[in-house]
Specification:
Shape: globular
Strand order of the largest sheet: 1-2-3-9-10
Strand content: over 45%
Radius of gyration: 14 Å
Order of helices and strands: EEEEEEEEEE
Length: 131
């Protein structure tokens, strides 16, 4: 599976919460319109680093406890990587970041949309990531 490097340079255009955390990423190509319009869905506990460098342990479905993630709205992706069995790491230009690891029993995250190949990290994680 390929690391979703197409996210680099995109902006978070929407955040939403229920039993999952959803982030919508968009990027425009000056000549062709949207080059990327994708949604990341997080289904398991994850780590969020705010712009000041403080880490928050967050869990989808916990309502107001997810408020720190709202700061990602409008932020641009500086770097993205997938490590060890599907650990998704996203760094933002303002210093914020996400770390979403695999879960032993559940799908942990998936990414779908225009401009990215669909990806899903299922129970136990996924091997074979390449750039």
């Amino acid at each position: 599976m390929k690391v979703p490097t197409a996210l680099i340079g995109s902006r978070v255009e929407r955040t939403s919460f229920d039993q999952q955390v959803r982030l919508s990423f968009c990027a425009l190509d000056p000549d062709e319109g949207y080059r990327l319009d994708a949604e990341l869905v997080v289904e398991v506990p994850f780590l969020f680093r705010d712009a000041a460098g403080e880490w928050h342990e967050l869990d989808p479905g916990t309502g107001l406890r997810l408020a720190p993630v709202l700061a990602l709205y409008g932020q641009s992706v500086a770097a993205v990587d997938v490590r060890d069995r599907g650990v998704l790491v996203i760094d933002f230009l303002d210093g914020a970041g996400l770390w979403i690891g695999p879960d032993a029993q559940f799908d942990s995250w998936h990414l779908v949309g225009h401009g990215v190949a669909p990806l899903m990290v299922g129970p136990g994680g996924e091997d074979g990531w390449e750039r």
